[in-house]
Amino acid sequence: MIITLEAVYSFLGIITLLGSVYTFLDRKNIRRFTSGLFYLLYGTTLLLGKILPPALIGIFVMIMVVIAGFGGLKLGHYGENSSEQRESSRLRLKNRLFIPALLIPILTVIGSEGLIGVKWFGLYLFDPKNVTLISLGVAALIALVVGLMITKNSPITSIKESRRLLEAIGWAAVLPQMLATLGTLFDRAGVGKIVSHLVVEVIPAHSLFWAVFAYCVGMALFTMVMGNAFAAFPVMTAGIAIPLLIGHFGIEANRIAAIGMFAGYCGTLLTPMAANFNIVPAALLDLKDKNHVIKIQMPTAILLLAVNVMLMYFVAR
């Protein structure tokens, strides 16, 4: 294959590492050394994660946790344009500003649907296992080049803006990877068996409704803890779905998986652990209440969770 997912991660790593250099050099940031180290380590894991020993990556992660936990991350000085300059640029560029943003989803769809199995000189153009993610990365790179051509800015501007956005997100940028790892650890540690034992002890063995209720609500709660429905899925499925819903009540596995994941997404709407959905938007929009997004989503999440419980129950009957 010519372009792999590691190439996309390497590109992200290079951007992050270059941004960390500006953080180290930012004398107006009172935590420039600890902040710079945090993003330096993060960029290194993205760039060299395939090469470095897992134990060393673990040490990097522990250092990053210590830095974030003890207040080592602070926003820097970014030399942003004034509101008058931004307004002047907006009037000059007009609707052309939307072209790079629209290119990303359009090119991603084209790549993910049209480049599956495409070969060049006998090699797959994109890794067949990760066509969509690679298409997204390539689309973002193309959109970046187009954006620079439209605005006539230098590539350095993209690095500085990447640094500004990444520092606005802060420690939450690392959370999805860490939570996915946590889900794997929970599964290998046998948490699913413990959950299964507890559920069997509490709910009546003959009650389909309470088994469905335990699975759907459990998916939502574990997602709230882990911040990721994909991390919660193997734990709850091994603990409740397979032994009870599939093994005992004979429900079709595909239906359980689809509705169970939907129930997990209800938990995503309710937790700050799902940082990329609930904390990052609040940070980027400079909301005073960092939990405002969660508060707005709460009624919808609870209603949808109830719908999922009833849907799985009636589908299973």
UniProtKB/TrEMBL annotation:
Q: Which UniProt keywords apply?
A: Membrane, Transmembrane, Transmembrane helix
Presence of keyword Membrane: yes
Which branch of life, at top level? Bacteria
The residue ranges crossing the membrane are: 6-25, 55-76, 97-121, 133-153, 198-222, 229-251, 257-284, 296-316
Q: Does the keyword Translocase apply?
A: no
What is the protein name for this chain?
Permease
Q: Which organism is it from?
A: Sulfoacidibacillus thermotolerans
